[in-house]
Each structure stands twice: as structure tokens, then as C-alpha cells.
Design goal:
With about 475 residues, the protein is mostly helical. The protein is built from 21 helices and seven strands.
């Protein structure tokens, strides 16, 4: 059954993002950014992101992009990222299955707990929201939870190896590792917990103080994220504004928006509220606390929902908590009401499926994700005749289809004076894309049409491709 669930999850996750991509629904942020970096690594070139304006390691210190780039030499396609992402999310159920087996959980309850993981809305939503390297850390963190549960010193080396590999995926994973360390210290495993906490802190400092500044320069400084927290970049480290900044963060921490966010996190596993040993349940979710705190003090809506990846690492801990609560049922301990105990597996499956349909974006495939199909064929035809060596300017939605090159950029207003920096410019007048507008597209067309060094290479309907005449 575990393999059947894995294959189902893999084909659903990878297939859904593949479909969304082919429907022109993926974006420059973040698929275009990472696909360009992976491509450049595979070519032996410096992975300088023309979208970010600095080396890809200056973004989040995701060292894992290098082995992905080497793998891309064998499989040179953006589909590689979809395969890896779908496989990582689905493979997370193997440690959970092993944990259930170790604790002699019944077949039906094991299946219910694994389905709960796969159907938790943020899992599917992250799988179709472009590509994020931290997703690759999810099965590693889940494996660590299994190894920690076994309480054997023989597992320590494997625990540290899994944590190291997870840390290479993104700097924010260090917050999860720190949380794991604190959790183990509070569980009286002080030596192990101290080592894990030290690893998390050391990695955070290494990436934030050395790797990101070295590779990203001033453009990658942490203050570029200030707006996500309602702060001004020029004031974030200014001591004269420390009281004002703390006040802003406190207002964001204690807000209705955060109550709504916490409710969203709980709803997929609402039945845990029936579990009488809720104190231990909250304690077992402690490793996610550092990430949760960052999300709670943020002003950005994207960090407080189940659509984006910011709550992703909560799910492995929730899955383990659900399993632990089910162990009690199987052992005849009345921690749940009798009516729930008798039907636990069915209730969990039905509730998980209901919440998945309600809060995941699976329904978008029957509506919202089809709004670019009217020009998709023309876009693909134009893309097919663009020179692989050309530097290209195009819309956000088309960038991921053209990102396997050294220079790719968005049709934003600042590019109006830099059109000569590109070899080919692909426009969709009907769908200008994020950070652009119909007015910007019209201005670009007007400038190119009146410039003799540019000519139309392709035009059909609202889709138009310009190329420098010298090409």
C-alpha cells in the first residue's frame, strides 16, 4: 500500500505541475530562477541569475542546486525539477510508514495517516507552485523524525547526514534544525539536542554571513526581505528605528490575520482537538516553532496561508503527531471519544479528502489555470523558433519556457530603456503577466516597430516575437 500511495502521489504532484507549466501558468519567480541556475550549472557556467541580478547562492544558499545541475547534464529539461519535487514529497511517506510499522499500527490506521500527509493542502499546493529546493529536505526531515523515535545512538551519524543534506536545500531549513535541537534538549536528550542546535545555528550563520554576502553582494542583503515584514529596508538595521520596528512586528504578531492562519493550519487535522493528550501534541510540534514565529511576525499574506511553501515543514510533524495519537487508540487507551475511536481511519480519510478539495488548488485546474489556453498554442510556436543562444525579454509566465539560457528577463517598465540588451523579445498582448501591463507591452511594441534594427519574426493573434535584424 505504501508504494501504491507513493506512486499515486508522485504522478499527481509531478503531473499536476507539468500540466500547469504546459498551460502557461508557471512563473519566473521561482521556476524560471531555479531552472536557469540548474541549466547554467549543467553547462559549467557560473549560475548568475539574470532575473535576480546575482549568483544563485546569494539567494538562499541552496547548495543542492549544484548536484541537481549535474543531474541536468543527463536529463536536460525543466521536467527534471518537477520529477524531483514530486518524488521528494511522495517519498516522505516511507519514513512515516516505517514509524507506523515500528509501533505496530494497523494497516487501516497507517493508510489513513499516510493519506493525511499526502492530502494536507500545503503539500499539493507547494508541488504545483513552481519549484522550491527546500521541498527536497522534507523526506530528510521526516527520516530524522523516524531515527529520533528509535532512540539509538547508532543512528546519530545517519541523523547528522540527513540534517546536513537537508540544510543544503535552503537557509530556512536551519530554523527547522534549530527547532529539532531545542525539542531534543527539552526531551532530556541534551547532548544530541545541543549538537543539532549547534549545527542549525552554525549553518544559518555560515550561509547568512558568508555564503550569501560573498555570492550575492549588496543586492542579496537581508534587508531586501524587509517589505515581507512591513519594514523599510533602509531602516531595518537602524537603531534609531528599533522601537518602531519592534512595534510593527508586535502588531503583526498579535492580529486577526494570524488567528486565521493558525486556524488554517489546524483545520486539516481538526480531529486532533478531540485528542485528550493535547499538551504532548503541542510539544511534538515544537520543532516548527521557529518557522512559525517568522511567519507570524510577517506582514506578507503569502507567508500565512496554505498556498505557498512557508508552512511546508509543519506537515511531517503533524503526520507523526497523528500517528502517535492513533497508537493510543490501537492500545485501547481512551484518548479519543468512543465514536471517533470506532471509525478513526474512515473519519481521517474522509476529512482529509474534504479539506484537500476545499483548501488545495486542485479545483483551479478546472477554471483559473485555463485562462492562458487561448494563446498557449501561439506562444509555444513562437518559443520553438527562438534561438537557444539568444538573450530574451518576455513575460513572467513565459520565462520558465525560455529560462535555459544565460540571459532572460521580465517585461517590466525599467526594461523600456534597455531593449537593445536583448536579442529576441516575445510578447503576449493579451496576457502581459506579473509586473507588467498592457501599456508596457504597447510601449515596447511601438519602440521596436519604429526601430529598423528590429523585425517581426513571428506574429499570430496577440502573440508577437521580435528579433534583431542581425540575427
Amino acid at each position: 500500500m505504501t508504494w501504491a500511495l507513493f506512486l499515486t502521489g508522485f504522478f499527481v504532484f509531478s503531473g499536476s505541475i507539468w500540466l500547469r507549466h504546459n498551460w502557461i501558468q508557471t512563473s519566473a519567480w521561482d521556476l524560471g530562477i531555479f531552472d536557469q541556475a540548474v541549466y547554467l550549472i549543467s553547462q559549467g557556467s557560473t549560475p548568475y541569475s539574470s532575473l535576480l541580478g546575482f549568483h544563485i547562492l546569494g539567494d538562499h544558499g541552496a547548495l543542492v542546486l549544484y548536484p541537481i545541475g549535474w543531474l541536468s547534464i543527463i536529463f536536460p529539461s525543466v521536467n527534471l525539477l518537477f520529477i524531483l519535487q514530486g518524488a521528494a514529497l511522495s517519498a516522505s511517506i516511507f519514513p512515516l510508514s516505517k514509524l507506523a510499522k515500528n509501533n505496530k499500527l494497523s494497516h487501516s490506521l497507517t493508510t489513513a495517516s499516510l493519506a493525511m500527509f499526502l492530502l494536507y493542502p500545503v503539500i499539493f499546493n507547494t508541488s504545483i507552485f513552481d519549484f522550491h529546493p527546500e521541498v527536497l529536505a522534507v523526506p530528510l526531515i521526516t527520516q530524522v523524525l523516524l531515527l529520533l523515535d528509535q532512540s539509538s545512538k547508532k543512528n546519530y551519524l545517519l541523523i547528522f547526514l540527513c540534517l546536513f543534506l537537508a540544510l543544503t536545500c535552503k537557509i530556512t531549513v536551519s530554523l527547522v534544525v534549530l527547532g529539532l535541537g531545542i525539542w531534543q534538549i527539552l526531551k532530556k536528550r541534551r547532548v544530541l539536542g545541543s549538537f543539532i542546535s549547534a549545527i542549525g545555528c552554525s549553518w544559518f550563520l555560515l550561509i547568512s554571513m558568508v555564503v550569501i554576502p560573498y555570492f550575492g553582494g549588496t543586492d542579496s542583503e537581508i534587508n531586501r526581505h524587509a517589505s515581507k515584514f512591513g519594514l523599510r529596508s533602509e531602516e531595518i538595521f537602524n537603531l534609531n528605528y528599533i522601537n518602531e520596528n519592534i512595534s510593527i512586528l508586535l502588531r503583526q504578531l498579535i492580529s486577526i490575520q494570524n488567528l486565521e492562519y493558525l486556524l488554517l493550519l489546524i483545520v486539516p487535522v481538526l480531529y486532533l482537538c478531540l485528542f485528550k493528550n493535547r499538551k504532548n501534541t503541542l510539544f511534538d510540534l515544537l520543532p516548527f516553532a521557529p518557522c512559525l514565529f517568522i511567519n507570524l511576525i510577517a506582514s506578507s499574506v503569502t507567508m500565512k496561508n496554505l498556498v505557498h511553501q512557508y508552512s511546508l515543514f509543519l506537515v511531517p510533524f503533524l503526520a507523526v503527531v497523528v500517528q502517535k495519537s492513533l497508537f493510543k487508540i490501537q492500545n485501547g487507551i481512551q484518548y479519543y471519544p468512543i465514536w471517533f475511536t470506532k471509525r478513526a481511519s474512515k473519519i481521517i480519510l474522509i476529512w482529509s479528502l474534504f479539506i484537500f478539495i476545499l483548501l488545495s488548488r486542485v479545483t483551479f485546474f478546472f477554471g483559473t489555470f485555463q485562462d492562458r489556453l487561448d494563446t498557449a498554442l501561439q506562444c509555444r510556436e513562437a518559443i520553438s523558433i527562438i534561438d537557444p543562444k539568444s538573450s530574451v525579454l518576455t513575460s513572467n509566465d513565459l520565462v520558465p519556457h525560455l529560462s535555459r539560457r544565460k540571459v532572460i528577463a521580465l517585461t517590466t517598465s525599467d526594461k523600456l530603456t534597455k531593449l537593445e540588451d536583448f536579442d529576441e523579445i516575445l510578447l503576449d498582448k493579451k496576457h502581459p503577466g506579473w509586473k507588467s501591463s498592457i501599456e508596457i507591452i504597447d510601449d515596447i511594441i511601438m519602440k521596436l516597430s519604429s526601430n529598423p534594427s528590429w523585425s517581426i519574426k513571428y506574429e499570430k493573434g496577440p502573440v508577437i516575437l521580435f528579433a534583431k535584424s542581425s540575427l
